[in-house]
UniProtKB/TrEMBL annotation:
<keyword id="KW-1133">Transmembrane helix</keyword>
<dbReference type="Pfam" id="PF03703">
    <property type="entry name" value="bPH_2"/>
</dbReference>
<dbReference type="InterPro" id="IPR005182">
    <property type="entry name" value="YdbS-like_PH"/>
</dbReference>
<feature type="domain" description="YdbS-like PH">
    <location>
        <begin position="79"/>
        <end position="157"/>
    </location>
</feature>
<feature type="transmembrane region" description="Helical">
    <location>
        <begin position="56"/>
        <end position="75"/>
    </location>
</feature>
<keyword id="KW-0472">Membrane</keyword>
<feature type="transmembrane region" description="Helical">
    <location>
        <begin position="33"/>
        <end position="50"/>
    </location>
</feature>
<protein>
    <submittedName>
        <fullName>Membrane protein YdbS with pleckstrin-like domain</fullName>
    </submittedName>
</protein>
<keyword id="KW-0812">Transmembrane</keyword>
């Protein structure tokens, strides 16, 4: 396990001299909107039996509302943890707060790049990039990119991948 001499992980998730590009905060807005919709549906489903049959279901409504506020806070932390960095030979992607992950994708291993945006993503003007490599285990994803940045990054990664693949 990589780390410092004292046994801690140190800066294993921060490469030297790398400038991380964060994802858009619109991703947090999109995820929070979806969370709000789920909360409303869950609260209504539990409030109906609370009104019609027994007040014990109000405990469930309170739990759903409490989960909404916890989820609101958690979404903000998760989105702030996402970042990517383009280097000369590879792309770095990091995410996670409690369970951190750093993915290094060499440009020469990229086979194709997908850009995806669901209805909620489109409403908030964000897209996701999915990188497909020769090994399914190293596929990587960058969510929450503004549409123009997603397009720029898709073209740049595809051209770098073709250039590195041609050099093999």
């Amino acid at each position: 396990m990589a780390g410092t001499t004292d046994g801690s992980l140190g800066d294993v998730f921060d490469a030297d001299g790398v400038v991380w590009t964060p994802v858009s905060q619109r991703l947090a807005s999109a995820r929070r909107a979806w969370l709000g919709l789920e909360t409303v549906v869950g609260a209504v489903v539990l409030a109906i039996p609370a009104v019609l049959w027994t007040p014990w279901f109000w405990i469930g409504v309170a739990a759903v509302v409490a989960a909404f506020f916890w989820g609101w806070w958690l979404v903000g932390r998760q989105v702030r943890a996402w970042g990517y960095a383009e280097r000369a030979d590879d792309l770095l992607i990091r995410h996670g707060v409690m369970f951190r992950e750093l993915v290094v994708v060499p440009y020469g291993r990229m086979q194709f790049v997908d850009v995806q945006a669901g209805p909620v993503d489109q409403l908030f003007g964000v897209a996701h990039i999915q990188l497909h490599t020769a090994s399914a285990g190293t596929d990587a994803r960058i969510p929450g990119l503004i549409a123009a940045e997603a397009s720029r990054l898709r073209d740049r990664l595809a051209s770098r991948g073709e250039a590195r693949l041609a050099g093999l």
